[in-house]
Amino acid sequence: MRALVFHGNLQYAEIPKSEIPKVIEKAYTPTIGTLIKEEIPFGLNITGYTLKLLPKEIIDLVKEGIANNLIEIIGTSYTHAILPLLPLNRVEAQVQGDREVKEELFEVSPKGFWLPELAYDPIIPAILKDNGYEYLFADGEAMLFSAHLNSAIKPIKPLYPHLIKAQREKRFRYINYLLGLRELRKAIKLVFEGKVTLKAVKNIEAVPVWVSVNTAVMLGIGRLPLMNPKKVASWIEDKDNILLYGTDIEFIGYRDIAGYRMSVEGLLEVIEELNSELCLPSELKHSGRELYLRTSSWAPDKSLRIWTEDEGNARLNMLSYNMRGELAFLAENSDARGWEPLPERRLDAFRAIYNDWRGENGEP
């Protein structure tokens, strides 16, 4: 048994707001529609804020999938906030805001919770359990590195540094890509199967999200050099009871990877090559493992630095810390602080902070 999860967020840091209709047309509609038509079960994790932006046709598609037991609705934070960076009352507000939208819109109460950017700390499971959640999704690689808790003493090195270099640097790109593929395959060998129990303020079950598996599937779907659906299936065929895909729906049909476009048809090819039954994420089996997960994210070094160290990010985090009410959600949106955020996304957060300070209620 293997599972799929698609994460949707139309506040995406690197997507202009003017492109939202195109994202819906190229990614959301064909991906959700095709999977339902092919009777492929999957988890759907769309932020509560994004759900309010989607047209009725998409909402009706999702309702159809839920009714046919093909879609498991998964909770997340309302505006994709990085939860370990928020005061606890705002963590709960984000959790509750998202849950309320989904319960009202779909008449279901999600049991699984997707941590935005898989950013985690040991208090979050307690807040989730207090609000009706039974399990969450967490970074598998961070689980491997959690035996040592102090990254200032022992920093975490990425498992596939050359693949990261190939993505970010033009010089020696192809050589780095080749070396990165070898590193990626080695990282897949570290993957363990099944859910785990996280030791936390309140223990909770977790589905590991393996970036290595996810990346390999994306490279295969996109048919990047030396990769295709058949090859990636051969890399992961001995890994059962895992997530095959667990990231942005926008990568399927809309966003390129180094000029290569993924399609839902390519994903179906991987599934066919694996010749494996798919299940809803909640149906994945437990591995029997119990472990402590350090404060972490699914960034290459498993830290929160991407969302804290930049001066603009630090300023946003400081200014939004004591906010309350609806505008706080917009100020907390992680994609104002994203990997490579557009100015308009960052300005949305700064405007929300200013409007809150001035006592104004208008959205950016």
Automatic annotation (TrEMBL):
Matching PANTHER family: 1,4-ALPHA-GLUCAN BRANCHING ENZYME RV3031-RELATED (PTHR41695), 1,4-ALPHA-GLUCAN BRANCHING ENZYME TK1436 (PTHR41695:SF1)
Q: Which UniProt keywords apply?
A: Carbohydrate metabolism, Hydrolase
Q: Which parts of the sequence belong to the Glycoside hydrolase family 57 N-terminal domain?
A: 17-287
The GO biological-process annotations, alphabetized, read as: alpha-glucan biosynthetic process
What name does the UniProt record give this protein? Hydrolase
InterPro entries in alphabetical order: Branching_enz_MT3115-like, Glyco_hydro/deAcase_b/a-brl, Glyco_hydro_57_N
Family listed: Belongs to the glycosyl hydrolase 57 family.
- Lineage, uppermost ranks: Archaea, Methanobacteriati, Methanobacteriota, Thermococci, Thermococcales
Please give one Gene Ontology molecular function term for this protein.
1,4-alpha-glucan branching enzyme activity
| Domain of life, per lineage | Archaea
